[in-house]
Amino acid sequence: MSRLVVVSNRLADPRKPAAGGLAVALGESLQRTGGLWFGWSGNIADNTADGEGHLHTRSSGKVTLATVDLNQNDYETYYEGYANSVLWPVFHYRLDLADFNTRYLAGYRRVNQLFARKLKALLRDDDIIWVHDYHLIPLAAELRALGCRQRIGFFLHIPLPPALMLAAIPQHEWLMRSLFSYDLVGLQSEADVSHCIRYMTTEAGAELLADQRLRAHNATVQVRAFPIGIDVQEFRRLGQSQDALDTYESVRREYSRRQLLLGIDRLDYSKGIPQRVRAFSELLERYPDNEHSATLLMIASPSRDSVHAYADLRHELEGLCGAINGNFGDLDWMPVRYIHRTVARRRVPGLCRASRVGLVTPLRDGMNLVAKEYVVAQDPDDPGVLVLSRFAGAAEQLKDALLVNPYDTQGMAESIQAALHMPLEERQRRHRALLENITRFDVHWWRESFLAALGASSP
Ligand code: F6P
């Protein structure tokens, strides 16, 4: 059997809590198949005289982890720059936050070339290579340029925006052309697939063949949706851990006379966190029965805080939370509890289960796995309600959530009120339907269906 080689910018580090769905999903799914996981070490180091980052390898269960360090300049231009100040904002429909500094592209290309060189030395002829996310879009093109002939698939964990928005990236033609070096491109949703096909046929002159295959530049690539899922059994097991049970008990005790609403995100402008706080404020304003009762617990783990837009968001949020607590809070009740720290993953199921409402309200999101975890953590006899943004990729699958428009403050407040007062029978019915979908399309379905399609693609 071929060895699976996974490549991503960030790897799951068993010594640290994983931030973001990618590392969790890949970590869990690679433990099943075994293989090689290649990416950035997470370290910034002075590189050696030849300008190459050191390669470190170690084993974790059935997986060999191979990582390279980045130097300070590459970190700034590739990671903070092109990946997180160009591609991240544009792919999340935030052209206003993009910084098209010309230094960034050179760093992005340099690191993709570095990854290709280091990885090539580790490859076997019959490896199957699976590249992940926006940091590494041109990696297959760089590998091909070095003579690699293996099958290579790509999965984009974030949304793919409409063609005209992509066209705002000065190097969009080069970037999108590099997708033709892959045999298969996987996206999170059907909306993303339609954007990709439209871009390729209108901007890149590609021909659309059967089975969502696109032909241009003497190459054919198939583009399909593979919505990512969670490891349901693993998350359930986590929910039975002592930490999760203790967390559940202590939160229940503390909020026994209150209704808890929960949000767990990386502190990112795509997550719609200020919009959520405004909707919560509107809820308290419009429906005073929630005073002294509804409490919004928001856990926003620190993320990319050296990028300006993230620092700005942090200040905005601190101001908003302070204002709402000042306006509505009382001696024995603070409406918003905002925590800007990472909470241990093993406590997450307990927090979800203890909350009456899960608020997942991004302005745009590739999928959002917290939405799925919230549902799985619930007690089926007395489940909480998932309030989900229609702009999360998960909304294509989770139609039994209460779908909201996070830009509509009043509408979101009304939906939260409906969630807080939803009759038990409706909560149970929605929960059953959501759970069925999440269990069926779990992370193993995602991995197996992607790899089966990659195996079947013409090399
Ligand atoms: O899931 C999307 C994603 O951007 C991943 O690629 C990334 O690893 C994760 O979010 C967390 O972000 P970062 O790696 O920048 O800390």
Automatic annotation (TrEMBL):
Gene3D superfamilies per UniProt: Glycogen Phosphorylase B
EC nos: 2.4.1.15
CDD domains: GT20_TPS
Keyword annotations: Glycosyltransferase, Transferase
Keyword Disulfide bond: no
Gene Ontology BP, a term: trehalose biosynthetic process
Gene Ontology terms, MF aspect: alpha,alpha-trehalose-phosphate synthase (UDP-forming) activity
SUPFAM superfamilies, per database record: UDP-Glycosyltransferase/glycogen phosphorylase (SSF53756)
Entry-linked InterPro entries: Glyco_trans_20, Trehalose_OtsA
Catalytic activity field: D-glucose 6-phosphate + UDP-alpha-D-glucose = alpha,alpha-trehalose 6-phosphate + UDP + H(+)
Top-rank lineage group of the source organism: Bacteria
Pathway as given in its UniProt record: Glycan biosynthesis; trehalose biosynthesis
Family assignment from sequence similarity: Belongs to the glycosyltransferase 20 family.
Protein's job: Probably involved in the osmoprotection via the biosynthesis of trehalose. Catalyzes the transfer of glucose from UDP-alpha-D-glucose (UDP-Glc) to D-glucose 6-phosphate (Glc-6-P) to form trehalose-6-phosphate. Acts with retention of the anomeric configuration of the UDP-sugar donor.
Complexes and interactors: Homotetramer.
Protein name (record): Trehalose-6-phosphate synthase
The species this protein was found in: Diaphorobacter ruginosibacter
